[in-house]
Design a protein that fits this description.
heterodimer, A: alpha+beta, Immunoglobulin-like, 2 domains, five-stranded mixed β-sheet, elongated, B: mainly alpha, Cytochrome C Oxidase, Chain A
Chain lengths: 292, 634
């Protein structure tokens, strides 16, 4: 920005113009130094969905990192606005003109380079976090780029207007209306829909994957906390979209085995008439709802 | 056909009797022909798609009839306004009627008029009316959300309200700045007597008005459940109200593409001598960047909606899984339009802010070329980011790092605009007029909108936030905080020029402060609600979130009230008090302030010759220290 050693504009009465560059740099530095610890240790930990799964905890870290990177930008513009409002004003009833500066090559070049580097580093960070965490809980399509090693429990999420059901293909394809997951076990969700586009969202687990008709959308999650959670639909799917939610529970592996065998036994007649387990099911032709 | 004699009109035109004036091509005829066309289309639709069709007998629904009704209605409306006269008389070899040269008082605001200044004011008022409708919808939505369970309105009506609010705002505000301000100001700023295609200019406005009424008419056909995104296959099972959405957005798309073409043609071909590209006002540059987006993005929308209409009527399967189509296709096509669309909304706001800043800081625009490259960069990049709306959809999941990168890169050219903002304020002589206050608020709001956008562009964090209130807060910060605030900056800045009258300043300041505070108090907590996991577009939520929701609703009502202050001020100051404004109250050096008020029909007696850009403010400074001033425009 224009050097402060420029002559004060004519009409200026009191003294030389202070060195705004240095003064504002100090203001910004102090403001950022106050804001950063607040963002890192106070606000950051509040941002994520908690520590219900490895993916949720990972997302929490990402929030904190991004908020930390955004803080200097936020303080720069907000403090600058305040600084400008205080110091760069027209005196009452004044008709003064500002300096006719039309740009500053070095400031512009610096700005372009710094913002580009920041943006690139955010993108690299996001990519690494995404792929290293096998999609970070997001729906990653039928063929995810990276797949976690080790045993995985496949669970199919079937969305339809306006409920979710869950099939466990490794347990005879039993289909339940509640989602039970074993603790500390990598789960492989296969999300699909029978009619319109829905979205499977277990907030506490940090997982969200759209349910598209005819598509097998895979998301990986490893629950780390014994707790119950809510599953909601996150994509507008018609009148009862707001009511499309049900309960889920993370239980110990032993309790999970007991529960799933109980379901297998109880639901055996239903399982027999279900279509054979498949990654997708051809949806029925869309029908008009009766008008009210 | 009327008005072959208009060219020869005497200074004191003889007014025909009222009954004679009501016959002919005017708004009344247009409405009558519009209604007649609607029923004609409806009747033909029933002939084509009679009661033998199973679904129609089951549900009393006939999409063919409604779509044809809307189409014929719009055609009748346009014929009634007189849009067919020119092509027909040219086809028959007759001389063209010269409607644009007519000027007979208030009446020209209610019909086809090709004077760009009249169209600008028509746009301002017409769009304002429909934005008011959209705003009332928002108030009803917030009233419903006072309680965690539905109390006021049923879920069906709630979704229709959400859809109407979003669609109306998105559709109307695409032309929110280009319609009123660019139509009015671009010819004045570039030293032209008219737009390149004056009839198309009028057509864009009347198409938009027809579209607005069609969207409102959805309430007679059951509304639509899809929100403004209209996703398939939900849109295929929706009741007839969905057709209103389809026709509305298609007409908006046509209007948008024509408006963009007209702006591009005008800016490229009609600049006055000496007005080189590097002397063009920054607002005109922003209009140009937006126009490019409009021309390239809107046809995609029109095509998508045509496919949706065909799926709904003659059972094509563009978006039907199992029939060879895919719901992904709709999402892709929609967002390929939809993301440029949000920059169509944001870019002209950049232009207004950067145009106004130099006037009130008494400094030249800092970094003029940087600002231009920022706008063109945003415009170009906006075509490469659309799949960030589909991060969790499972589509092209391997490409997500690319879309993450492209989305984050778009913040670099946006950053240029901020640098120009910062540089122009630097050591300026700010006077805190109402337009300036709105510009300063723009910077704060758009900053919040932009920074929250970075969190959304990151796939891991977007996994939690997609489809939540966080997204809703983010785009309201960019669109309301960015676009609407700059829109009001433009209104307070230019309406004294357009009308020759001044606003009551005390009411204007009340409007600003109340709006700025209540806007932030409405949308800031929505970030928190989104982070807590509250989805968009629902009327039921966790009871634990009620406190924040009540806070938001009350703030939203205050926000609505602040806009009523504006409406009151506009009516009070511009209709009742009518205090004349000074010729150039802001001491601006831009061309539009150098012509007399009211602006003569032909703008300039003599086409001006430009020898500099309009930012010739400030006292010269010798280049010292760390660098030389970047090359001036001239």
């Amino acid at each position: 920005m224009s050097s402060s050693s420029a002559a004060p504009p004519p009409g200026e009465t009191a003294g030389a113009e202070p060195n705004h560059t240095v003064r504002f740099a100090v203001v910004w530095l102090i403001g950022t130094l106050i804001a950063l610890p607040l963002v890192i240790w106070v606000i950051g930990p509040l941002l994520g969905p908690g520590n219900g799964s490895e993916q949720a905890s990972g997302q929490g870290t990402d929030y904190t990192v991004l908020a930390t990177l955004a803080t200097p930008v936020l303080t720069l513009v907000v403090l600058y606005l305040a600084y400008a409002i205080i110091f760069f004003r027209q005196p009452k009833g004044g008709m003064l003109e500002g300096p006719a500066v039309r740009g500053h090559a070095r400031v512009q070049a610096t700005w372009i380079i710094v913002t580009s580097l920041m943006v690139l580093s955010v993108a690299v960070f996001g990519t690494v976090r995404l792929e290293a965490d096998n999609g970070a809980g997001s729906g990653s399509g039928p063929n995810p780029l990276t797949v976690p090693k080790g045993p995985k429990l496949p669970v199919q999420v079937i969305a339809q207007q306006w409920l979710f059901t869950y099939r466990y293909p490794t347990y005879g394809g039993v289909e339940t209306t509640e989602l039970y997951l074993p603790d500390n076990q990598m789960v492989e969700f296969h999300v699909t829909s029978l009619d319109v586009v829905h979205s499977f969202w277990a907030y506490k687990l940090g997982v969200k994957a759209d349910a598209n008709p005819g598509v097998d959308n895979i998301a990986f999650v490893k629950p780390t906390k014994l707790e119950s959670f809510t599953v909601r639909c996150a994509e507008l799917c018609g009148v009862w979209h707001g009511y499309m939610s049900n309960a889920g529970k993370v239980v110990t592996p032993a309790a999970f085995e007991t529960w799933i065998h109980e379901q297998q036994r109880r639901l055996a007649p239903a399982t027999k008439v279900l279509p054979k387990y498949s990654t997708t099911y051809l949806p029925e032709p869309t029908k008009r709802a009766e008008p009210e | 056909m009327s008005a072959t004699s208009a060219a020869a009109a005497a200074p004191q035109p003889i007014r025909a009797p009222l009954w004679r004036r009501l016959l002919g091509f005017n708004l009344l005829t247009a409405v009558i022909l519009g209604v007649a066309g609607y029923y004609l289309g409806w009747w033909i639709g029933h002939l084509i798609n009679g009661p033998s069709f199973e679904y129609e007998t089951a549900t009393d629904e006939n999409d063919v009839a409604l779509l044809l009704g809307y189409t014929f209605g719009v055609i009748g409306f346009l014929i009634g306004l007189g849009f067919a006269n020119y092509p027909i008389s040219r086809l028959l070899g007759r001389p063209a009627s010269l409607r644009e040269k007519e000027s007979d008082g208030i009446g020209r605001y209610f019909g086809l008029c090709t004077d760009h200044k009249v169209v600008g004011i028509q746009y301002l008022v017409g769009i304002g009316v429909f934005i008011f409708v959209g705003g009332v919808n928002a108030m009803l939505i917030r009233a419903e959300l006072l309680h965690p369970v539905p109390t006021l309105i049923g879920p069906n009506q709630y979704l229709s309200l959400v859809g109407m609010h979003g669609t109306m705002m998105m559709g109307m505000m695409t032309s929110g700045i280009l319609g009123p301000f660019a139509n009015y100001l671009v010819p004045l700023m570039i030293g032209a007597r008219r737009m390149a295609f004056p009839r198309i200019e009028a057509l864009t406005f009347w198409l938009l008005m027809a579209a607005g009424f069609i969207l409102v008419s959805t309430i007679f056909f059951g509304g639509f459940p899809t929100g403004w995104t209209g996703y398939a296959p939900l849109n295929e099972e929706a009741v007839m109200g969905m057709d209103s959405y389809i026709v509305f957005f298609a007409l908006v798309g046509i209007s948008m593409a024509l408006l963009g073409l007209n702006m591009m043609a005008t800016i490229i071909t009609m600049r006055a001598p000496g007005l080189t590209w590097s002397r063009l006002p920054i607002f005109v540059w922003s209009v140009f960047a937006t126009a490019v987006l409009m021309v390239l993005a809107a046809p995609m929308l029109i095509a998508t909606l045509l496919m949706a209409a065909l799926d709904r009527t003659i059972d094509t399967t563009f978006f039907v899984t199992g029939g060879g189509g895919s719901s992904y296709l709709f999402e892709n096509l929609f967002w390929f339009f939809g993301h440029p669309e949000v920059y169509i909304l944001a870019l002209p706001g950049f232009g207004i802010v950067l145009e106004i800043l130099p006037v009130f800081t008494r400094k030249p625009l800092w970094g003029y070329r940087l600002a231009i490259s920022g706008m063109l960069g945003v415009s170009l990049m906006s075509f490469f980011v659309w799949q960030h709306h589909l991060f969790v959809s499972g589509i092209n999941a391997d490409l997500r790092p690319f879309y993450m990168l492209s989305t984050e890169i778009i913040s670099v050219p946006t950053g240029f605009i901020f640098l120009c903002f910062i540089g122009t304020l630097w050591r300026g002589r700010m006077s805190f007029t109402v337009p300036m206050l709105f510009c300063l608020a723009w910077a704060f709001n758009f900053l919040i909108g932009g920074l929250s956008g970075v969190v959304l562009s990151d796939v891991p964090t977007d996994t939690g936030l997609h489809g939540s209130f966080f997204v809703m807060a983010h785009f309201h910060y960019t669109i309301v905080g960015g676009l609407i605030f700059s829109f009001f900056a433009g209104i307070y800045y230019w309406v004294p020029k357009m009308t020759g009258l001044r606003f009551n300043e005390m009411l204007a300041k009340w409007h600003f402060w109340l709006m700025f505070i209540s806007f932030n108090s409405t949308f800031m907590p929505l970030f928190a609600l989104g982070l807590e996991g509250m989805p968009r577009r629902v009327s039921t939520y966790e009871p634990s979130l009620q406190g924040l929701n009540v806070w938001v609703s009350i703030s939203a009502f205050v926000l609505g009230f602040s806009l009523l202050i504006f409406v009151f001020n506009a009516v009070y100051s511009l209709i009742f008090v009518r205090e004349p404004a000074e010729a150039n109250p802001w001491r601006s050096k831009s061309m539009e302030w150098q012509v007399p008020t009211p602006v003569p029909v032909n703008n300039f007696e003599q086409i001006p010759v430009f020898d500099s850009d309009p930012y010739d403010y400030g006292t010269p400074v010798p280049a010292v220290g760390g660098g030389q001033p970047a090359a001036a425009g001239a």
